[in-house]
Amino acid sequence: MKLITAIIRETQLNQVHEELIHAEIERITVSRVSGHGRQKREEIYRGQVVVPSLIPKIKIEIAVNDAFVDQTIDAIIRGAKTEGDNVGDGKIFVTNLEQCIRIRTSEKGSEAI
Whole-model pTM? Predict the structure, then answer.
């Protein structure tokens, strides 16, 4: 089991969601987060150029069985990648998921996902 975490642009959420549904990945958690990497966005505030330290992003978390890891990653990339070679499209992190427990039924492991 793996936990796939993706940080993407806010504007790409609908496209990523559509790609995940098309790939038959329907159980996701979405959060609004702020952060920054290499992407810098300048804004004009009261006539001066300022660079905000944190940029609004979307964090998607998906717990999957090992057989679904590659198709989940591919779907996120298809939906999140913007045209051109743009900094700020996001990142995907894949971590081992030690255990998953469905509260309602007490099922554990891959059956709980």
Answer: 0.84
